[in-house]
Amino acid sequence: MSEATETTQGPTSDRTAIEFYNTVTGEERGLVGRVYKRPLGKMTNEDPETFIEALVFLDLHRRREPDAQGKARGMTVGQLQDYFADESEDDAGEA
Predict the structure, then answer these.
(1) pTM of the predicted structure, to 2 decimals
(2) What pLDDT tens digit does each residue of the chain (95 aa) get?
């Protein structure tokens, strides 16, 4: 595992996972299907960790990161969960 991945703190994306998912195109869903051998939509309930990994893969792919698939698959579950902005961050200042 690379040190750069290990030392990343806070979300990498400024969107939540749901916000990012809402921007996924049909072409990208097809790409996920080819890479992960199952539809992205089925992963949401059946395999949430792989669903988040697939979203991270797509974000890295959009950013034209070399080896986006390998980078996403090399992340720990904690790193995957921290990749996208937390949905509750918007409500944090309203208490």
Answers:
(1) 0.80
(2) 444 444 445 568 899 999 999 999 999 999 999 999 999 999 988 999 999 999 999 999 999 999 999 999 999 999 999 999 988 744 444 44
Sign, Cα dihedral of 83, 84, 90, 95: negative
Residue 36: which of 19, 12, 17, 54 has the closest Cα?
A: 54
Apex 60 CA angle, 56 and 66, nearest 5: 135
Asked if 36 and 54 touch (Cβ cutoff 8 Å), the reply is: yes
